[in-house]
Each structure stands twice: as structure tokens, then as C-alpha cells.
Amino acid sequence: xxxxxxxxxxxxxxxxxxxxxxxxxxxxxxxxxxxxxxxxxxxxxxxxxxxxxxxxxxxxxxxxxxxxxxxxxxxxxxxxxxxxxxxxxxxxxxxxxxxxxxxxxxxxxxxxxxxxxxxxxxxxxxxxxxxxxxxxxxxxxxxxxxxxxxxxxxxxxxxxxxxxxxxxxxxxxxxxxxxxxxxxxxxxxxxxxxxxxxxxxxxxxxxxxxxxxxxxxxxxxxxxxxxxxxxxxxxxxxxxxxxxxxxxxxxxxxxxxxxxxxxxxxxxxxxxxxxxxxxxxxxxxxxxxxxxxxxxxxxxxxxxxxxxxxxxxxxxxxxxxxxxxxxxxxxxxxxxxxxxxxxxxxxxxxxxxxxxxxxxxxxxxxxxxxxxxxxxxxxxxxxxxxxxxxxxxxxxxxxxxxxxxxxxxxxxxxxxxxxxxxxxxxxxxxxxxxxxxxxxxxxxxxxxxxxxxxxxxxxxxxxxxxxxxxxxxxxxxxxxxxxxxxxxxxxxxxxxxxxxxxxxxxxxxxxxxxxxxxxxxxxxxxxxxxxxxxxxxxxxxxxxxxxxxxxxxxxxxxx
Length: 559
Known about the structure:
Elements: H1 3-17, H2 34-43, E1 55-56, H3 60-63, H4 73-76, E2 84-88, E3 96-111, E4 128-141, E5 144-148, E6 151-155, H5 169-179, E7 193-197, E8 202-207, E9 210-215, E10 220-221, E11 239-245, E12 249-251, E13 254-265, E14 293-304, E15 310-321, H6 327-331, E16 346-357, E17 362-370, E18 385-396, E19 403-413, E20 439-440, E21 443-444, E22 454-464, E23 467-477, H7 480-486, E24 498-510, E25 513-525, E26 546-557
Antiparallel strand pairs: 1-10, 2-3, 3-4, 3-26, 4-5, 4-6, 5-8, 6-7, 8-9, 9-11, 11-13, 12-13, 13-14, 14-15, 15-16, 16-17, 17-18, 18-19, 19-22, 20-21, 22-23, 23-24, 24-25, 25-26
């Protein structure tokens, strides 16, 4: 599929047929401080309550005409447009080019002993120091907008104790039996890692509430804050065409938001572990098919007119190897999902809801989905299921304007239910034929805790405008589905790998400068699924627990 040709032809048609209307740049998924700030602001009625925050990146200017993506009226008392340039186009009487210098981002991360953390875009799971730099420009002329925001990542990739160094040949065989069905390498090669990409860039044609474009931006589908089942910024963004709403569309029965995509997913060609054979020299790694994957997807949500603040939505994605596709119907599987095909497809489906209670300064949300979705979910809704559920509540402080205490809690469950005893469903994001699974460039596109993982978290913070100080507690259970398959003879409780993290977090603004920091000690119990008194060899008895210091610092400068 030639994305350049399709983008040019479609763009030309829109230029000829559609009148112009202007819209601002998007707020990239995961932008430090600002993304969560706008969501908090909605809890107090500060921005349009019709904005679901379930389809991102968002354009805050489209949700409320006096809010800019990177500046806000709370700070300046008005819309700050000092970074917006306007120039007349030679030979044109009314046409003008609007352009801005986009904020410069410097994101840093450090893990003292082993990889930890997610939702960091092109960054990779790694020990040691890692950094991301990004910046760019935004242009707008008539209905055409161009956002150039490339990214550069560097990771030192400090050595750490991995799975192969602490397990038997049988354990290695079990590991490859599971991870040969997903592109999730433990290490991204050896030595330093450096990667540049187009990042949060796009070229779009905008008309009223609709936008058509070619993009490499990260997408987030669903109401979750820490996790979502299908689309997050855990992996690098991928090339995709999209048709989407850029603001809620109001009708007589309520408001609608949606997005349709067609894109290209890439693999790494890296093995799950650096060790690819057992002690006898027998190869355990099965190389994945050398072909890129075509993905199509749709997300849609509706806010009923009669139930203000309630959002109801669905997500659906399908991927297949590109060389397997024949004909136009192969590129439009969402309109023929029940038709038989002569090639394998992997699909995930979810439903979600978010209920905003602006008067109570609170919201509740959930997403419930099915891996490798089929109509079997109607008769057995617990089969192959996963879910995300959360609650946020803001208590304003009396006599202290713009200040409050924010409590957020979220639960993510990706491990199989007890239904696995009678009807195993396989791990979330893995696939028996499309062996890269639901990943892009070696990282899961959905929940960053990965296949078979579970997470419970709670954040308690003081907030004032863009400022935020608080604590975060997390319990992260690594791939339960693999552990129960690989170690069936060992007591289930004693073999679980569980991380407990307690962190101090802060966000602060200094005029054009925004700072976001986190310091989080993490204790791992049964690290790499090594249980107490478990021996890799008769003479070895490794420690089952490990300690890691996870820290991050984000710096955003707005010109």
C-alpha cells in the first residue's frame, strides 16, 4: 500500500471540494503536565464538558475556543499568542500563513537495576539512563495544516540480570513457547541505543469538525489515565492515515467523536532473549515473518443529550500481514469482519464508558475488551477478557482558589480469568499466527504493563493550576498467564513476580518552563519469577527479591 500516493490523491480531492476552516495543533499524547491539567480542569467546569478525553491526541482549542494547546487563560488571564506568527502570502489578498514554534521537550528516565516504566513513546524498556528530545514547528494555510515534531531517543542500556541467566533449560523452552508469539524483546540489542523518528508529526486537511491526514503521532483510545487496552503511547507512533473529528460534533440527540485509521506496524527482528538456544545448542527462537503489518481500526463515542457527562464508546482494530491482503476489501476489514478470508487476522474489540460529574468534581470510567475478538463473547463474556477501571475525585480547598486535593485510582487486569481452566484464551497482545502480536517496533501498543500483566495504583496529590505535588503507589503483577503456564508444578502464590512502587511526584510551571519529576523506589518480589529456595542448578540459590530506583524528569519549554 503506497501511503504517499493515497495521501496525495485524497488531499487533492479535499483541497478542491472542501472550504477552509482553521484549527490549532494537537497536544501530543503524554505531554508533560498539560494533558492531565486539561482533564483536571474539566472536573471543575473549566473546559467543554462534551470533550470525552477518550480519543487523543486532543486539540484543546477545539474543545473551548479560548484554550490553546500549550498556553491557557488561567496562567495569563487571556489566550497567550506570543508564539504565533502570521505572514501574508505573496500575491494573495486574504490568505495568510499561521506558524508557531512548538515547545521543546527534554524527557529523561533512569532505572538503577532493571527496566521499569511505560507510556513513554519511543523510549525503550532499559536499565540505566535514557533520554528523549523533541521539538518542531506548526504551519497552517487555509484547510491545510502541517505539524513537524520529530523525536530523538538515546538509551545507555546498562546490563541487568535477565531471565536467561536465572533459569533452567526447561524454563527457557517455556519462555520461548510464549514469547515467540509476540515481538517484545527483553533487550533492544547490545550497547547503546539511538533512534530518530518523525514523532508527533502530521499533515492534515481540516474542514469544520472533521480532519483527514497522514500522521506518525501516538494515539490513545479509551478513558484510562495510566492504561488503555488497545491504543496508548507505550510504543512509538506508527504511520497512519486517519479521518477523525477534531472537536465534539453536536446533534439533536447528543454529541459524537470518532476516528478511523489505516496504518503500518513494524517489527524489530530481535529475539525475546539474548540467549536463543539451550545448553545442548538446540535453537529455541523462531524468527518472525519478515513482513510489515497492515492495521485498520475505528473508535467511536457518543454522549447522550439526556445524560450530560456520560460517554459511551467502542474500539475495534484488525491487523494482518501486508502481503496476505488481496483486493480493496482486504484494506477495509472493518466493513467485512464476518466474511471468511483466506488469510489470518488478529483483532481486538473493546467497549468503554466515562461519566463526568462536574458539580461533584469527579469522574468514573472503565474499558472492557476481548482479545482476538469473535462473537463468542456473547455466550462467554469472561473469555479472553481484560479491563481497565478508574475513579478520580477533586476536593477544592476552602478559601484557597484554584487549589484542591486530587485522588485517583485505577485498576488494569490483563491476565486471563478462571475461564482459562476450561477454555484457555492465550495471552493478551499475543497471536498464534501473527507472531509480532499487537506491537509496534517491539513494544505493546496497548497497556504498557504488557501481556498477562495486572496493575493497581492510587495517586494522592495537591493541585493548583498547573502545579501538582503528591504520592503514587503501584502494585504491578508481571505476566501471570506465562507464569501459570511455565511453572505449573510450583505453588501459584510463591511464583508470582510482583513489583511494589512508592513514588513522590511533582509538576511545576515557571512562566514558559514546565517541569515534571518522579522518584519511585520499586521492590520486586520473585524477580524474573524466581521463587524462594528455587535453584537454577543444584549449586545455585539466587535471591528472589530485587530493588530498583525508577526516576524521571520532563522539561517542556514553550517559546
